[in-house]
Structure formats: C-alpha cells, structure tokens
Amino acid sequence: MKTAIVTDSTAYIPKELRDKLNIHMIPLSVIIGGETYQEEVDITDSAFYEEVRVNEKLPTTSQPPVGQFVELFEELAKDYDAVVSIHLSSGISGTYQGSITAGNMVDEIDVYAFDSEISCMIQGFYVLEAAKMANAGEPVDEIMLRLDEMKGSIGAYFMADDLSHLQRGGRLSSAQAMIGSLLQIKPLLHFENKVIVPFEKIRTRKKALKRMYELLEEAVEKGEPLQASVIHANRAEEAKEIQRELEERFPSVEFNVSYFGPVIGTHLGEGSMGLGWAKRYE
C-alpha cells in the first residue's frame, strides 16, 4: 500500500524538506487589511510581521475550504492508496474536521485524519515521522499507531512577548494585559485538552525562558531520545543562540529552529518564543 502524507501550513515545515519527503501541504490563510494571504504560499513569516506593524487592526485567520482538501485527495488518489492527514489542534481550528469531511466525500482513496492536538513544529514532528515511515513503505496502520504513541512524549511551551496580541485576540482582558505589561509578566502557555491555556505567570522574558529549559530538562531526565525545536516569532538570531545554548546543555537532544508563521503569530505576536519536544525514533 502506498500512503501519502498531508499536513497544513501551521506545521511550518520548510518547503525543501516537504519536497524531499513528499509531504503535501494545505495552507491556512491570514487576512490583513482586507487582503487574504495563504501562509507559506503568498506571504512569508517576516513579511507578515512587517505588515502587522503598519496595520492598526489585528489580522484574522481562516481555515482551508473543504473543497481544497477534496481537490488534493482526488489528485493523490491517482498515485496513492491512502492518505494520512495530520493537522493542528481541533480545539483551535476546524482544519482537522475539514480533512475528515473531505475524506468522506472522496471515494477513490482512504483518508486517515490525525488531530495533533498542538501546532507548529511539534505538529511537524508527527508529520516528519509519518513521512519517513510512508517513504519506507510502512503500512498505514503502523503509521497511525506510531503517531498515537508519540503523543505521550510531546511537550511544548510558548511565551507571548507582547500581551496586546492576546488581549486584542480576545484571549486576555484589557485589564489583565495592562497589569501584565506593567509588571513585565510573560505568560507561559501550553496546550491542554486541545486548546491553548496559561501554564504559569512568570516575571520577565529571561525567567520565562529559564523555566522552559527546566521543563525540557525534566523530559530529558526520563531517558527517552528526544528531538526539540526552538520556535520564534521573527527573532531568528535569538532562537539560534538559544539552540546553541541548549545543544551544549543537552547533547543527547536533536535540536532545530522553527518559527511562528502568520496564522499562529496572529494570536501570539512578534517576539514570542517557544520550546517543544517529542520522542525521536532512529
């Protein structure tokens, strides 16, 4: 059985890597000043943050239309027997449900949808593992079992640098945002039950980063081989410095640097930083 791997743009897997591993991507969109852009197609993350700075109104986001999934699945049916479609958490987007709906509309191919219950490169870890297995000819049932197994090893924490984005997006009251900014509070966020919720309130960016390192250390001490990603919102140089620091501190962990693209960046804001990890399979 030949299996295709599909994901959405919020995994933020570089195009060259998607092409190398035969990963198919469906883009979500961001609307800025009345213009709609498909992320990873029409707008880069750096261009997005530049646009946000000059627009008073916060961008909005939209999930892919079901028809876009249907079109892709029908095209894949010409060369594949099955699709594993891996998407950002169903608690923050209807993209996963859209893939299920489209799969039910296409008779020519079996579609197996997977809710990552997370986003960004941590979602990407699922996708990359599924792609490696599919390219090695592993059966679809084994791929789905591996993805379910990976969920037990996932950890991810995000720090919002600018509370105004959370407040403008309806995730924080005006009073909380004002007080938080005055006190330099950097809320540490994580996914719980498929949605983004506060994990801890921490004073200063430096302490928030230190806390993320401590949480990674707790995961490393469990003994499983890990892969980890430093995720930034238009702070590439800082992310590279953090990567170098963590590689020295945790030599057993395989690190990369990724980013919060337009859709996730709309809600977290420029300057945000994240750290996430998952089990690494040899």
From TrEMBL:
Task: Name the residues that span the membrane.
Answer: none
Which PROSITE patterns did the record assign?
DEGV (PS51482)
Q: Does the keyword Chaperone apply?
A: no
Does the keyword Aminoacyl-tRNA synthetase feature in the UniProt annotation?
no
PANTHER family from the UniProt entry: DEGV DOMAIN-CONTAINING PROTEIN DR_1986-RELATED, FATTY ACID-BINDING PROTEIN TM_1468
Q: Which residues form a coiled coil?
A: none
Q: Which InterPro entries match?
A: DegV, DegV_C, DegV_domain_contain
Q: Which domain of life is it from?
A: Bacteria
Instruction: Supply the name of the protein.
Output: DegV domain-containing protein
User: What UniProt keywords apply to this chain's record, in alphabetical order?
Assistant: Lipid-binding
Annotated GO molecular function terms are:
lipid binding
Query: Which Gene3D superfamilies has this protein been placed in?
Result: 3.30.1180.10, 3.40.50.10170
